[in-house]
Amino acid sequence: MLNLVLFGPPGAGKGTQSEKLIAQYQLVHLSTGDLLRSEIRGGTELGLRAKMLMDQGILVPDEVVIGMIENKLKENQSAAGFIFDGFPRTVPQAEALDELLAQYNTQIKVMIALVVDEQELTKRLLIRGQSSGRPDDQNEALIHRRIKEYNDKTAPVASYYESQGKFKAIGGIGNIEEIFQAICEKIETATANVR
Ligand code: AMP
């Protein structure tokens, strides 16, 4: 299986690059943000509770997103692999993911981090907010809060994968196709390495 973590702050281009990677490698896309928004649309209790936090730019509890990922792994056992987008966002989530994948005798192959500075992220998210309809993309203070949440809680996840020799950083500003090619090169190198 080819399991990838696509990592980076909000607005780094994870969703855009995920779509291209799915087409290239036939992976199942697991975005906890998308899964949470679908719970909100469905009006579930989980969705209602998550919405209160998401509307403030705060992470939802680890057990909520870990439970969602656990269900999706169970539902997609014959997948060629998974692309994790927006997950794991904390070190406990990363540890839980390793344990879940071990149950299926598989693991994360590589973690690709898209690097984009805060000024560019804010600009992109405000533009996205004009068409995405996402309340958390439409307010600069909230965008700043989400980036702070990323720096405080999510950035340490990079060291977690670095200590496993799986962390690969790529500049996330520039031509979408060129960034995609750079990601593919990292993936090809990682999969060529016999571990
Ligand atoms: P995203 O679509 O990935 O930008 O996520 C939107 C919001 O959903 C975040 O600001 C969080 O409130 C919540 N969220 C998404 N994924 C996670 C996660 N892995 N852990 C905690 N909260 C999450």
Automatic annotation (TrEMBL):
UniProt cross-references to HAMAP family, sorted A to Z: Adenylate_kinase_Adk
Subcellular location: Cytoplasm
Entry's EC annotation: 2.7.4.3
Pfam families, alphabetized: ADK
Functional note: Catalyzes the reversible transfer of the terminal phosphate group between ATP and AMP. Plays an important role in cellular energy homeostasis and in adenine nucleotide metabolism.
NCBIfam families: PRK00279.1-3, PRK14527.1, PRK14531.1, PRK14532.1
Sorted UniProt keywords: ATP-binding, Cytoplasm, Kinase, Nucleotide biosynthesis, Nucleotide-binding, Transferase
Pathway it works in: Purine metabolism; AMP biosynthesis via salvage pathway; AMP from ADP: step 1/1
Residues the record lists as binding ATP: 11-16, 128, 174
Ribonucleoprotein found in the keyword field: no
Name of this chain's protein: Adenylate kinase
PANTHER family documented for this protein: NUCLEOTIDE KINASE
Region (NMP): 31-60
Reactions the enzyme catalyzes: AMP + ATP = 2 ADP
Recorded GO CC terms: cytoplasm
Positions bound to AMP: 32, 37, 58-60, 86-89, 93, 134, 146
Domain remarks in the Swiss-Prot or TrEMBL record: Consists of three domains, a large central CORE domain and two small peripheral domains, NMPbind and LID, which undergo movements during catalysis. The LID domain closes over the site of phosphoryl transfer upon ATP binding. Assembling and dissambling the active center during each catalytic cycle provides an effective means to prevent ATP hydrolysis.
Gene Ontology MF, one: AMP kinase activity
Subunit structure: Monomer.
